[in-house]
């Protein structure tokens, strides 16, 4: 980079002060001649572009990366790996959450387990078998890491930018202005020529705080007025090479004033050009500008394998551009030219006006619960070529979203939203979905309305039957009938019908439209069958779902299926079932009924002289039943038990010999059969 009236003397120019153009050219030639001689003598240093990382299956750091003893930000840092370091990793492991600015804001909670750095084992470097680093800070080591470019001014004379492009260069940074009032006479020609050749282009301003110590805004205005910034250009630059008589705080304030003015007028945070030595000597190695969001550093550090990055690795962001030589040879340019490198393979993050829009087609759709719908997400890109990440929020319960491509590298992707009726069913209704697309620091959203409808009838559970107590046998017995249904829309109403002894189906009146049970009398020995259906909230009506055929049967106390133990006596009574019953008064006397069915009940007499008995079902104690009553009551169902299906079972009644009123009756046992 060249000073309008002479050559800056900090680290790129031979003298400080105003000299005429002829002497400038002479000094420049003399300086470069000496520099070339020095380069020839320094054979241990690389000449021209530094070597790039050889292909490997490893990863390279995108910025300064902390290498830690554990997968946690709370663990000690073994070192900070410079940008471009190559690591060998063996696996990813979960760890603590992390966030970092590494070109853009990245977050996550996964970590690489790293066993080698730049070909040397972690154990030999740090004394540990493995170290850890956050996963979002790397790129493939065998990928294209850098883009090459040049920075030019009037000193290069006429330039064949097509030849420059053919030589592999991808960007040009052209000098536009210096101080107040100087416009590089080649700027417009260089800008137009580079753009026409397909090169990304921007401009720099050579700062003159020595000439305008109190007017950085004036220099900024002159630059912006001359710049001609349009979308598609790269972020413009402030070139810092001279400090004049300004002290550290004064120069920092000057730089701040210039940057703030450019930002106010363009909305762009300009990149900053400086050498490590200048930044440390004159700006006290401050991180203030990097911390304010001036994240793009153009560092000048020649003839080294990798640049020293000031300001604590530019607040751990690393370098974005690196001017690695001040005297390179490029086809299309006569004589020496500054050589530069961009730290990445895509210029989108440093392109002014880079943007994209996302839209959904169609913008809404209806889908039957349990089915899926697809839509196309279209991306209108403006100078954005980087992949776009897509997320979807607002999905209803039980639904999922899937992309045909993620991240999106082209202009569209297909988004499929699937619903379900099983597990957690997707509810019916309209749901506004938010589709968020992110590329670098750019985030754009669009919406899509998903309407879930229910075209399916409810799923009905067939009626089941249960014996109940307390109850009374009088030629028939109360039996509870239960049913249910499920549907994403909910159930709005049920219907129930009854069939008696194989006859016609008859509607049954329900306590309410949404009742799921009722109790009805079944005549002993008569087969009954119930059926249920349901309507959902969308008005879908199911078919009738019949239950099994059920009958209530009586085993009188004289049945051979009942085994008695201890002393039992027979008593006749016109109030008893079958006209008689058996009773016991002594402790331990028992009656065991063996049967096949889905329900069983014990029929007994209650009265003032009746006592208590324990009830066992299939050998398991279930309840102690007290038959005492202040008055005599016959044919009482005093205990009942039910199963989900029919099977072979036993019920056992054991008298407890209650003092003063020990009598326990077995009038009959009842069983519920289904078929």
Describe the protein's architecture and organization.
- The protein has nine helices and 42 strands.
- It is mainly β and 675 residues long.
- Strands 27, 29, 30, 32, 33, 34, 37, 38, 39, 40 and 42 form an eleven-stranded antiparallel β-sheet that branches.
- Helix 5 runs parallel beside helix 6.
- The chain is elongated, with a radius of gyration of 45 Å.
- About 8% of the residues have low confidence.
Question: Could you list the spans in which at least 5 consecutive residues all have pLDDT below 50?
Answer: 4-56
How large is the count of helical segments?
Answer: 9
Largest β-sheet summary? 11 strands, antiparallel
Number of strands: 42
- Tell me the strand percentage band: over 45%
Oligomeric state as shown:
single chain
What Rg is obtained from the alpha carbons, in whole angstroms? 45 Å
Give the helix/strand class.
mainly beta
Q: How far from one another are the termini?
A: 98 Å
What would you call the shape? elongated
How confident is the prediction overall: mean pLDDT?
89
DSSP helix fraction: 10-25%
Features:
675 residues; mainly beta; eleven-stranded antiparallel beta sheet; eight-stranded mixed β-barrel; 9 helices; 42 strands; elongated
Topology of helices and strands:
Blueprint lengths: L20 H21 L17 E3 L3 E4 L8 E5 L4 E16 L3 E13 L2 E2 H5 L4 E4 L3 E3 L5 E7 L8 H6 L2 E10 L3 E2 L3 H10 L3 E7 L9 H12 L9 E3 L8 H19 L4 E4 L1 H8 L4 H4 L5 E4 L9 H7 L4 E8 L8 E7 L11 E7 L2 E5 L3 E11 L6 E5 L6 E4 L8 E7 L10 E11 L2 E12 L5 E9 L3 E2 L3 E11 L4 E10 L4 E4 L8 E7 L4 E9 L8 E12 L5 E4 L3 E4 L7 E5 L5 E17 L5 E6 L2 E7 L6 E23 L8 E3 L1 E7 L1
């Amino acid at each position: 980079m060249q000073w309008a009236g002479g050559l800056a003397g900090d680290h790129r120019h031979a003298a400080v002060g105003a000299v005429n153009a002829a002497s400038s050219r002479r000094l420049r030639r003399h300086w470069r001649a000496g520099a070339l001689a020095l380069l020839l003598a320094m054979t241990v240093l690389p000449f021209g572009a530094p070597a790039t990382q050889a292909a490997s299956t490893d990863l390279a750091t995108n910025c300064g990366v902390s290498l830690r003893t554990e997968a946690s930000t709370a663990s000690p840092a073994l070192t900070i790996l410079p940008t471009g370091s190559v690591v060998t990793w063996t696996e990813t492991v979960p760890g603590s959450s992390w966030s970092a600015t590494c070109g853009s804001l990245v977050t996550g909670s996964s970590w690489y387990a790293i066993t080698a750095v730049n070909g040397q084992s972690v154990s030999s470097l740090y004394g540990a078998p493995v170290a850890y680093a956050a996963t979002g800070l790397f790129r493939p080591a065998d990928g294209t890491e850098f883009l090459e470019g040049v920075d030019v001014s009037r000193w290069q004379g006429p330039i064949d930018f097509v030849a420059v492009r053919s030589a592999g260069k991808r960007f040009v940074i052209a000098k536009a202005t210096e101080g107040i009032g100087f416009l590089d006479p080649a700027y417009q020609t260089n800008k137009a020529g580079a753009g026409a050749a397909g090169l990304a282009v921007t401009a720099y301003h050579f700062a003159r705080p020595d000439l305008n110590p109190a007017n950085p805004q004036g220099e900024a205005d002159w630059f912006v007025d001359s710049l001609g910034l349009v979308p598609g250009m790269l972020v413009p630059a402030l070139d810092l090479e001279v400090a004049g008589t300004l002290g550290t705080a004064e120069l920092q304030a000057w730089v701040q004033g210039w940057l703030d003015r450019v930002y106010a007028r363009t909305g762009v945070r300009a990149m900053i050009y400086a050498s490590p030595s200048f930044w440390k000597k004159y700006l006290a190695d401050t991180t203030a500008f990097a911390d304010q969001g001036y994240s793009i550093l153009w560092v000048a550090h020649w003839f080294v394998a990798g640049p020293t990055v000031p300001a604590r690795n530019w607040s751990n962001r690393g370098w974005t551009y690196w001017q690695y030589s001040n005297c390179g040879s490029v086809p299309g340019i006569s004589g020496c030219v500054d050589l530069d490198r961009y730290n990445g393979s895509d210029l989108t993050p440093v392109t002014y006006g880079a943007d994209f829009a996302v839209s959904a087609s169609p913008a809404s759709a209806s889908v039957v619960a349990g089915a899926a719908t697809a839509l196309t997400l279209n991306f209108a890109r403006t100078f954005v070529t980087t992949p776009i990440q897509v997320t979807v929020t607002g999905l209803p319960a039980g639904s999922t979203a899937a992309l045909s491509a993620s991240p999106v590298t082209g202009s569209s992707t297909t988004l499929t939203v699937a619903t379900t009726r099983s597990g957690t069913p997707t509810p019916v209704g309209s749901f506004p979905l938010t589709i968020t697309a992110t590329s670098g620091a750019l985030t754009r959203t669009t919406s899509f309305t998903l309407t879930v409808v229910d075209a399916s009838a409810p799923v009905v559970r067939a009626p089941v039957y249960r014996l109940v107590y307390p109850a009374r046998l009088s030629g028939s017995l109360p039996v509870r009938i239960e049913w249910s249904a499920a549907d994403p829309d909910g159930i709005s109403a049920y219907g129930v019908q009854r069939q008696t002894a194989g006859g016609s189906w008859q509607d049954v009146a329900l306590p309410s439209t949404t009742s799921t049970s009722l109790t009805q009398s079944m005549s002993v020995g008569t087969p009954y069958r119930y059926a249920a259906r349901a309507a959902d909230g969308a008005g879908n009506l199911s078919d009738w779902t019949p239950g099994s055929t059920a009958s209530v049967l009586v085993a009188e106390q004289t049945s051979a299926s009942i085994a008695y133990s201890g002393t039992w006596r027979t008593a006749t009574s016109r109030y008893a079932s079958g006209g008689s019953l058996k009773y016991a008064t002594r402790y331990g006397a028992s009656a065991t009924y063996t049967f096949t069915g889905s329900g069983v009940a014990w029929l007994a007499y209650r009265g003032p002289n009746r006592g208590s008995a324990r009830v066992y079902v299939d050998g398991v104690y279930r309840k102690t039943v007290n038959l005492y009553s202040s008055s005599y009551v016959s044919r009482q169902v005093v205990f009942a038990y039910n199963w989900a299906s029919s099977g072979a079972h036993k019920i056992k009644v054991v008298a407890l010999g209650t003092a003063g009123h020990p009598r326990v009756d077995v009038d009959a046992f009842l069983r519920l059969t289904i078929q």
